[in-house]
Amino acid sequence: MVSVIGSSPGVGKSTLCRALADWLAGLGASVDHFEEADILTRPAFRPVAEEFAGGTGAVRPEMLVECTRAYVDESLAAGRDCLVTDALLPFVPSLVARGHDESTLVQVMKDLTGAVEPADVTVVYVHDDPATALRRAVEREGPTGRTGTSGSWPLLRAPGRSTISRPPPLIFVSRRI
Fold first, then answer.
1. From 86's CA, which of 14, 17, 67, 159 has a CA 20 to 30 Å away?
2. Is the pTM value of this prediction over 0.85?
3. Virtual torsion, Cα 77, 75, 103, 97, nearest 10 deg
């Protein structure tokens, strides 16, 4: 599993995922490319979509972990060689945006580590100047982002974004692809 995350919208996560998935498929690997929007349509994540749509616009961290476990299990059972996920794991931006504290984030990282076993995971962090990346995202998605809400991009004005004094440790390490 290769999980691509990034410093901000527009940094190139989706572009990198598409290129990586295409390259791996070209080598003959059975690849599942999990695009960012797939979290709302994939069967393993149906409970996430239902909980999100339930009125609060939030999802419990435990639900994210259980659905991740289901996704990895079904992918391994289907014989997938590689999973390429676009901004799926480790859910930190979404959890921070919903006001979860550091101890919750650390626990989610520990729980996700167990949920992805026995898959080998490599997390790729893509970084760019935030102003440049956000400008690209606004050009691509419009001034309201993918959510279609009015105002600035949701994560930039989220209530919990200032509660994290340091990022949680990334539990996922590169073991092999």
1. 159
2. no
3. -150
pLDDT in tens, 3-62: 998 877 778 888 899 999 999 999 999 999 999 889 889 999 999 989 888 877 788 999
Q: Which residues pair with 5 in a beta bridge?
A: 125
Residues facing residue 85 across a β-bridge: 3, 34
Give the long-range contacts of residues 161-169, CB within 8 A, separation 24 or more: 161/96, 161/97, 163/96, 163/99, 163/101, 163/102, 164/96, 164/101, 164/102, 164/105, 165/102, 166/102, 167/92, 168/92, 168/102, 168/105, 168/106, 168/108, 168/109, 169/106, 169/109
